[in-house]
Amino acid sequence: MSRANKLIQHTLTAFQMLCIAGAYVLDDLSHRKVGVNHHVVYRKRQYLQTLLDADHLMIYGIILGIILAVMVVYLIRHCGRHYRKAIMPLILLTLAIGLLLVLPAAIAMPAYVYILFLAVIVWGLEAIKAITKLR
Q1: Could you read off the pLDDT of 48-62 as tens digits, one per residue?
Q2: Residue 15: predicted pLDDT
Q3: Cα(72)–Cα(78) distance, rounded to whole angstroms?
Q4: Who contacts 61 (Cβ-Cβ below 8 Å, separation ≥6)?
Q5: Those residues with Cβ within 8 angstroms of residue 87's Cβ, 6 or more apart along the chain or in another chain
């Protein structure tokens, strides 16, 4: 792997860690600060009624599955024998996002919507990292 690819990999990993840390900080603040809790609960209710409606969750799952399948086929075709190293993080993140979509314990969290959005961002960054590992 070239020096530029390593720099991109490390930068994207740092962004992923910042997203995960931000989600945990937001969840912690929603349990401690009343204003943050009110805002998070209001936005959660708003998003659950519009973007994350039960009808849309099935569509999001199908779209996520199709994107994952396309990425897996692309990585297997272009990566040769080392495709497992690029595919495993994508599959694990997809399972984690899928669990976030359907688990009642996750949906009950006040910062559920923000954590879900940040998980999708982390998944997208991981897809970019998987593609850059090929070059």
Answers
A1: 888 888 788 788 878
A2: 92
A3: 10
A4: 98, 101
A5: 71, 72, 75, 76, 130
CB contact at 8 A, 131 and 89 = no
* 100: amino acid identity, one letter: L
Residue pLDDT, tens place only, 23-32 = 888 888 888 8
- What distance in Å separates the CA atoms of residue 92 and residue 57, rounded to the nearest whole number? 19
Structure tokens at 83: 């495709």
Cut 0.90: pTM above it: no
CA 36 to CA 29: how far, in whole Å? 7
- Count of Cβ atoms closer than 10 Å to residue 39 Cβ: 14
CA 50 → CA 10, 62, 80, 86, 99, distances in Å? 36, 18, 42, 34, 20
Q: 100, 116 in Cβ contact below 8 A?
A: yes
Q: Please name the amino acid found at residue 51.
A: L
Q: How many whole angstroms separate alpha carbon 108 and alpha carbon 130?
A: 32
